[in-house]
Amino acid sequence: MASRRLALNLSQGLRKGASFARTSRLTRGLATPASPVGKVETTTLKNGLTVATNYSPWSQTSTVGMWIDAGSRAETDETNGTAHFLEHLAFKGTSNRTQQQLELEIENMGGHLNAYTSRENTVYFAKAFNSDVPQCVDILADILQNSKLEEAAIERERDVILRESEEVEKQMEEVVFDHLHATAFQHQPLGRTILGPRQNIRDITRTELVNYIKTNYTADRMVLVGAGGVPHDKLVELAEKYFAGLPSHGPQNQAYLLSKQKADFIGSDVRVRDDQIPTANIAIAVEGVSWNDDDYYTALVTQAIVGNYDKALGNAPHQGSKLSGFVHKHDLANSFMSFSTSYSDTGLWGIYLVTDKLTRVDDLVHFALREWMRLSSNVSDSEVERAKAQLKASILLSLDGTTAVAEDIGRQLITTGRHASPAEIERLIDHISAKDVMEFASRKLWDQDVAVSAVGSIDALFDYQRLRNTMKPKF
């Protein structure tokens, strides 16, 4: 899963699927420069498919991929898990290539083919030498449009995904955040998990998989992205050759309509007490901001002010934020991380706390929420400048390599409809002031409902109403 730390929103939390990769030494000139995101060119084909590129003439490799505006949110309760299931089956053979042929083709070009599913997106991408880009686009088009979805392959992957589900259930952070979504967006598509319940994984049929493709794998919901040494005109030419047959629109069935309804944030909590777990693992969130919200970068700066903390790190006493200093001084937590997760119409802004000081859980939560409340009225310029510097560095460091650049372009275009360059983002962040942060905190944090997810030894955690009362303290 992608990190939920400072750059969380730059690459969403993801379920990795099957992938093929071959480790090989790529010969390159000694002075080959790394290219950050420069000018992004876009073209829309007649069927509505968007093609976007960031061309770097010095790059010897390219990443090409298809970003699809459909994930687990586009499912129903009965079909939850379908998008992730399809991601696995994409590599199991098409009407033109067997699984063995597909694997050999990728291996022989020394390339890398992968896919992932999130709540709102599904992505298939390949990385290879520039000369192999046409072959990569051919393969992507084949697995997206001609997957055989054979019954034998479905049954094999069913077992694989069930084992993956078991592994996810052992990862405490994954469990806590899945519960957080489930309680914050109760009985809504956004509240469902990406893998789906185990019963669904056992019951998903080929018909449901085919219907998901017909509904969601359509040109108006897809962006073909190229980053590296692939010229824009070349990728447009390949797109017209291999994707011209994509349907422009899919049927607007119940699942589609539900996925486009605004998600309602519900103040609530879910607790799974297990005293066999030696730590208390707690996520607390208010309703955050969407990708398009004017407060998007203000939310990230505010999150960075709260900061992160890990007692195991050597710099633990000096991690910058006031909360990390307080927590370390009083030995309240093993770690914490603030997060700001965005979706198309809403988000979650909060903090994830882990502690083995079980008799002091209430202190940890209390002072974390008090830090939130402080942001409404008392934020220094130095705090804001530190947070802005960290955020800008995080954004630039996340754009290292053609795959990261392609991810940035695809994610922005599929979620907002446009691409903001690093320079534009930097200007937006630079304009954020301490006053902006305090106004954001006053609107989004002060006296707002919270969603709480807690797992482990949580007997000492306050009841919900007391937590809610902390959101409007009497200083």
UniProtKB/TrEMBL annotation:
UniProt cofactor(s): Zn(2+)
Primary site of residence: mitochondrion
Gene Ontology process terms (BP): protein processing involved in protein targeting to mitochondrion
Domain Peptidase M16 N-terminal: 51-198
Family matches, as Pfam families: Peptidase_M16 (PF00675), Peptidase_M16_C (PF05193)
Domain (Peptidase M16 C-terminal): residue spans on this chain: 203-391
EC code: 3.4.24.64
GO MF annotation, one: metalloendopeptidase activity
Any single Gene Ontology cellular-component annotation: mitochondrial matrix
UniProt entry tagged with the keyword Magnesium: no
Localization in the cell: Mitochondrion
Free-text function comment from the UniProt entry: Catalytic subunit of the essential mitochondrial processing protease (MPP), which cleaves the mitochondrial sequence off newly imported precursors proteins. Preferentially, cleaves after an arginine at position P2.
Record-stated family: Belongs to the peptidase M16 family.
Protein name, entry field: mitochondrial processing peptidase
Organism from which the protein derives: Sodiomyces alkalinus (strain CBS 110278 / VKM F-3762 / F11)
